[in-house]
Design goal:
CATH class of the largest domain: Mainly Alpha
Order of helices and strands: HEEHEHHHHHHHHHHHHE
Radius of gyration: 22 Å
CATH architecture of the largest domain: Orthogonal Bundle
Number of helices: 14
Strand order of the largest sheet: 1-2
Number of domains: 2
Number of strands: 4
Length: about 300
């Protein structure tokens, strides 16, 4: 006698917060898709790994952006005895595009879109090419290269600084602050980490305040001037709310753009080195570079997970 039955899969407990996961998540992703595509992790969070499920949740307005702001503010009660708070960090991150739902997200996105439209990115292509050549020339004589340190990390910091109209002598410091602030997405930060991020947010804001004040009086051909024009028009005073929008948006563009672009370059170069046939194909057919970048984004994304909270 025979019976038909579904094979029982041994359950496993997992969380993307576990140490070492980000170094090589793909075996785990494959197992999740095959064995448990709607998975509850060891902390009670639900993980979706199928395309259709993820797409459905991201398009469902009942699922809202992550509550990192509430987490930051909750830490205040642990440092009040030191006469400190994390309000600058919360004030900065609160206006990041990632943490907004419509209609607020729509308003900020419109400002950014208008700014980029006024300052056409295509017009920066020659300057970006020049920057890449300069970075390569700096290491060419040594005969070896550390791709993250020499290219992937400095390139986006320099380009974003140029787009915003910030002077080159500030690139390194602003890149450091941007990397620091991007750690706000890490779920297991200590109180000391939060205090340091708060200080980084304060320093970044103080520097940008000077630049924004100058651009209100004397607009330039840069994104900060374009953002001001898109929000209030040239020559008009800024309210505190609009000023905070501008500060947070510029910091977000710098932090998110620097970190994700650096990881894309690093992951992309590594993937091509591991697949020399694809590297050779790209060398022989440089016209496919755009589709190659899209595939590298898909193959080993610099942002492999995104969080949502059910309202």
């Amino acid at each position: 006698m025979t019976t038909n039955s579904t094979p029982q899969v041994k359950a496993f407990k997992f969380s993307p917060l576990l140490p070492g996961f980000n170094a090589n998540p793909y075996q785990t992703y494959t197992r999740l898709r095959l064995e448990d595509p709607i998975h509850q992790d060891i902390y009670g969070n639900w993980m979706l790994t199928r395309y259709a499920d993820v797409k459905k949740v991201l398009g469902d307005q009942r699922f809202i952006t992550d509550k990192i702001i509430e987490q930051i503010q909750d830490k205040n009660r642990y440092i009040q005895h030191k006469q400190k708070d994390l309000n600058i960090l919360a004030q900065t991150v609160r206006k990041w595009l990632l943490f907004f739902d419509p209609p607020e997200h729509t308003q900020l996105r419109r400002m950014v879109h208008k700014g980029f439209f006024l300052k056409t990115i295509e017009g920066m292509r020659p300057q970006i090419h020049k920057t890449v050549e300069q970075l390569i020339n700096k290491v060419q004589a040594s005969g070896q290269i550390e791709i993250i340190r020499d290219i992937a990390s400095p390139l986006p910091a320099i380009v974003i600084s140029q787009m915003l109209g910030l002077p080159p002598e500030q690139y390194d410091r602003l890149a450091y602050l941007a990397k620091d602030l991007f750690l706000v997405f890490e779920p297991l930060l200590s109180l000391e980490d939060y205090e340091r991020l708060n200080q980084s947010a304060w320093e970044f804001r103080e520097y940008l305040l000077q630049t924004i004040s100058e651009r209100v009086k004397n607009p330039q051909e840069d994104l900060i001037s374009s953002f001001i024009a898109a929000r209030v028009g040239y020559g008009n005073p800024l309210t505190q709310e609009i000023e905070n929008d501008l500060l947070s948006t510029c910091i977000f563009l710098f932090s998110a753009g620097e970190e994700t672009t650096a990881h894309l370059i690093g992951n992309g170069i590594l993937a091509l080195l591991r697949h020399p046939d694809e590297m050779e194909r790209l060398k022989q057919q440089p016209q496919i570079i755009e589709s190659a970048v899209e595939e590298l984004l898909r193959y080993d994304s610099p942002l492999p997970k995104i969080f949502r909270v059910h309202d």
